[in-house]
What does this fold into?
Amino acid sequence: GAVVSQHPSWVICKSGTSVKIECRSLDFQATTMFWYRQFPKQSLMLMATSNEGSKATYEQGVEKDKFLINHASLTLSTLTVTSAHPEDSSFYICSASLTEDSPLHFGNGTRLTVT
Amino acid sequence: DQQVKQNSPSLSVQEGRISILNCDYTNSMFDYFLWYKKYPAEGPTFLISISSIKDKNEDGRFTVFLNKSAKHLSLHIVPSQPGDSAVYFCAASAGGGKIIFGKGTRLHILP
It folds into this structure.
């Protein structure tokens, strides 16, 4: 079945540095990928929709200059958390689907801790 | 404003019995509903879905029921097995690939 790979699975960084998270669709091409964030005991919150070859669409309240999304190919989207702060510490998950009508497949997530 | 609500943060069920997980939604534009299962430190995995034109969808031990008038759906797992212990997310979509998740319900299957 369709597989989405996310890397790294966890990362610890110092405040003020930037962190890049990769999301790859391993056996299918995804023109659209989604990035979510999950705080403890909270639901998955959609951050942005990543479109191959065009700018990402951000949800209300998500800073596009802080969370840079690049969807350079049909199998890779990256999320860069710029100038990270402790409040950015969270669990970030990406997802993709074969078609708009098929269920989403998720990566295993990235646990980001900013010290 | 939560559009998808899972009011039970946790649920414990005896092995072999039926597990019923509930979900309510507020947006009448939602036309597709999904259930995802999540183990710790892993991403959610798709379990089962239902279109708004149906009121029931069954896949093996898993059945999802949709009551549009009540804006309510439920996931039934029968019989419950130890491997079913996980967090279950209810999700809804109004099209375009974007889905809204509930907060999840942690299911414990007791031996």
Summary: The CA atoms of residues 85 and 108 of chain B lie 5 Å apart.
